[in-house]
Amino acid sequence: MSIRPLIILPDPLLRQTSAPIERFDDDLQKLADDMLETMYDAPGIGLAGIQIGVPRRILVIDVSKEGEDKQPLVIINPEILTSSDERSVYEEGCLSIPDYYAEVERPAKVTVKSLDRHGKEQLLEADGLLATCLQHEIDHLNGVLFIDYISRLKREMVIKKFTKAAKQRL
């Protein structure tokens, strides 16, 4: 296992749509393990493949609280089947947009069909933080960022700040 570098805004890769995964081989297992290690190291509660430069439909999540046993989820080719009319608001952050947080309103409950790391179909019925995290990470697979849900003015300010920071790193 190894920690992979994170892709940071304004990298255009973050806006790319990820391709489905078709092969469940040793490379996929290593990718899943690397993603979990990268997410825990960051530290974060979710990570999509695109965030480490792999435009494939894979994400990892662990919303267990500090002090609890880890409960890692590896989710491949996820598809939201249903989402509730009821809404919830969480303050979201993103490993690809470090140190920026904003309140985002999303459906409070979702049902997600996906495959596990071995290709077995799984159905997740989620609410609370898990539902928010699933939607946030699935958005990544579609080139959508949580800042797309905030006002245009705030979003432009965030993009400008990160573009400036990226130019200073060069």
TrEMBL record:
Keywords: Hydrolase, Iron, Metal-binding, Protein biosynthesis
GO molecular function: peptide deformylase activity
Active site: E137
Cofactor list: Fe(2+)
Details of cofactor binding: Binds 1 Fe(2+) ion.
Catalysed reactions, as listed in the record: N-terminal N-formyl-L-methionyl-[peptide] + H2O = N-terminal L-methionyl-[peptide] + formate
EC id: 3.5.1.88
Pfam families reported for this sequence: Pep_deformylase
Binding residues for Fe cation: C94, H136, H140
Function noted in UniProt: Removes the formyl group from the N-terminal Met of newly synthesized proteins. Requires at least a dipeptide for an efficient rate of reaction. N-terminal L-methionine is a prerequisite for activity but the enzyme has broad specificity at other positions.
HAMAP family assigned: Pep_deformylase
Family statement: Belongs to the polypeptide deformylase family.
Protein name, UniProt field: Peptide deformylase
Native species: Peteryoungia desertarenae
